[in-house]
Amino acid sequence: MNTWTRELARATAAEWVKLRSVRSTWWCLACMTVFLVLGALAIGGGTVTELVRDGQPGTLSASDPVTSAAVFAQFGLVALAMLTITPEYASGGIRTTLQATPVRGRVLAAKALVLAPVTFAAGVVAGGVATAAVHLVLSAEVFGGRVTAPFAEVVPDLLSMGVFFALVSVTTLGLGFATRSSAGTLTTAFMLLMGVPLLLVMTGTSIGFEASLRMPLFAGLAFMGSSDTPMGGAVPYPASQGLVWLLVWTVAATALGHAVLRRRDA
Amino acid sequence: MISLNGLRKRYGDRTVIDELSLDVRPGAVTGFLGPNGAGKSTTMRLILGLDRPTAGTALIGGLPYHRIRNPLRTVGALLDARALHPGRSGRAHLTALARSNGIPLRRVTEVLETVGLGKAARGRAGALSLGMSQRLGIAAALLGDPEVLMFDEPVNGLDPDGVRWVRDLMRSLADEGRTVFVSSHLMSEMQLTADHLVVIGRGRLIADAPLAEIIARGSLTAVVVRTPHADDLAVRLGAAGLRWERPGENELVVTGATVEHVGDLAHEAGIRLHELRPREASLEQAYQELTADSVEYGARRERV
Ligand SMILES: Nc1ncnc2c1ncn2[C@@H]1O[C@H](COP(=O)(O)OP(=O)(O)OP(=O)(O)O)[C@@H](O)[C@H]1O
Ligand SMILES: [Mg+2]
């Protein structure tokens, strides 16, 4: 290992200790899981009821409503990501962090390197729990036996949800470094991830609609292949394009956070 | 060794540190004094690379802070004892710091024992008293066994035993050849701890000299002489250009002279002396005279 990777590995190990040693981390993960399960049951229940009522053919993969619910449950991880940085600015602990790791970009990288795998894993695990819950509850005969859990659909759904959560968390981290406050991070993250895209759709203009499609909300839903989205049906472009837009937002937020972190006094 | 060279810091259009140049040498405790708002904490932040200087450099062992590899093993600093996550345990806080700089984890236990925090470090840091947080902060500074130590008002909130412990700690760190740079407002404590003093006011250097020299500059430093021939001696002193006061019939207080000088003058004139001794001013007095013009946030002295 060369010096650069060794020092990054050390900073990352430190961030891992910090993440797991505060209770809020575990609270946020629990909240996200609860949101995801309840959201998936509500959305899945609605979809299945419609299928049955309208006498349409076809089945629903148990993981599909889970991916739709992910865009609500993501806020549990937004809080988690935010809490890895803004309390440091509030308490002045950021100065201790930068004393230990004075190369500033390395601090951001280390936090991202901890957050991304943790939130990816959390997405896969919580997604699995939610998928099982949907299957358990909605595959019953009263719902027409329309819900199935085919391996070939569930696995990619869970993986893409993990990636979506990881990217949203890193985006939030970037916003945290850029705004340096919990209030600023929550506001900007909510507007970026939910508020603005919904407002744009509500304008009813085609330009607003086109713009909202490129924001993380619909990009994420496209990437995860959800069939039930706030715009009615599925997002009208392929998953790969959704991933590209997600990455664009993640890189932009991270670059912004990095620029502020480098430029400003701690 | 810490070297500041033409250091300047502006916040907006306010110059807070102005042309600060000085060296903090190893093997000594260097006290860092100045009125509230003089720029002590800012200087320390500049040294640690937390704030970017407007001009000039702050180097540690010839390197800017961000160029030092595993800096906690070279520089230990306590800026603000309360600056940590209140929900994290003291031990986890130190563990994260140790991990970040490749410091063996047994050091965490060692420094916690050194500062006497063993058990308390398992609970939430937010539940620690101010003095205990201060001890945790000192533990963090000692963690990497560093060559250079910086403390911003370390005895703030400590009980008398703690104050004494910090004094002994600073002394022993300096005696081991380390560089110790410590700010404080407690002059009596500094007088007991420091070898060397740096005094700043409104961001400018006022004094950079050994403790003894700074105290000697105080106007209350004088030579006290008791003699049955005070009249004769007073004439001699006046002829030698020395200023004196005569608090009693047989007593003279001479300022601006050494004991040797006064003793020699008396001897040459054949004047019998009953007492000849230096009167030391306190650091407190000398400090107040040095900084009288640069106190920004002094309470107004009301006339009664
Ligand atoms: N981030 C900042 N932005 C603007 N002004 C600042 C900032 N940090 C410090 N100052 C100003 O710089 C001056 C020096 O502050 P500093 O905290 O360094 O003083 P100090 O000598 O440590 O004082 P004290 O003895 O009260 O701790 C003060 O006037 C303060 O208001
Ligand atoms: Mg200060």
UniProtKB/TrEMBL annotation, chain A:
Domain of life: Bacteria
Transmembrane segments annotated in the record for this chain: 26-46, 66-85, 112-138, 158-178, 190-209, 243-261
The UniProt record lists the keyword Transmembrane: yes
One Pfam assignment: ABC2_membrane_4
Signal peptide range: none
Protein name: ABC-2 type transport system permease protein
Keywords: Membrane, Transmembrane, Transmembrane helix
UniProt keyword Membrane present: yes
From TrEMBL, chain B:
Molecular function, one GO term: ATP binding
Keywords linked to the UniProt accession: ATP-binding, Nucleotide-binding, Transport
Keyword Nucleotide-binding assigned: yes
Domain ABC transporter intervals: 2-227
The UniProt record lists the keyword rRNA processing: no
Family of the protein in this entry: Belongs to the ABC transporter superfamily.
Identification of the protein by name: ABC-2 type transport system ATP-binding protein
